[in-house]
Amino acid sequence: MMITINKLLVLMFSIFSVTLLTYTFFIPKESQIYRLINYYDFALCLYFLYDFLKQLISEEKKWRYLYTVGWLDLISSIPVVAEFRILRFVRVVRVIKIIRSIRSLINFISQNKKQSLFGFIVFLVVVLIVVTSTAVLYFEKDIGNIKTAEDALWWTFITITTVGYGDFYPVTGLGKLSASVLIATGIGFFGAIISFVTDKVNNIKANN
């Protein structure tokens, strides 16, 4: 199986998903932070499910894929069954095997620098969104007005899309610091999207 930017993203998000899963072992299940992480885990599972369907469609021998490793990919993409989450470790191992050739990985990145860079930016943005929103909820839950997972999600969405706070805003020093990181992340990400799309359009025009 050839290396693609999607496989790199699947690898990075799989490792990140396992990291989040490991973290949930150390926090109370009734906490708002646990609830917030579950929301993000659900979003990651949607991406894993998309990857599974894409892989299934591209396979010539679909039943062989399903009977060998496809079923693992499928059930590890189900967010509502906590017992299946441990299978994310299997996904990490599988993707690592796909790109186990360091030379092939380096060649792919060197030949697709812009795509690879954009992929790494997307991954970094997702990580920063999860980290900053979790941090704000942790720092603000006892003092500010960001007290629930839903509050944190709404604050994150408004902050990264409008560079403003809306109805919810941090009042602690560390909360404000986390907000500053998120605002900078939003500005940088939208700038990267514009640059990436512009480059794609220019390439299409040049080829025509």
TrEMBL record:
InterPro entries referenced in this protein's UniProt entry, alphabetically: Ion_trans_dom, VG_K_chnl, Volt_channel_dom_sf
Domain Ion transport: 8-206
Membrane topology: Multi-pass membrane protein
GO BP terms: action potential
Primary localisation category: membrane
Alphabetical keyword list: Ion channel, Ion transport, Membrane, Potassium, Potassium channel, Potassium transport, Transmembrane, Transmembrane helix, Transport, Voltage-gated channel
Name of the protein in question: Ion transporter
Organism of origin: Psychroflexus salis
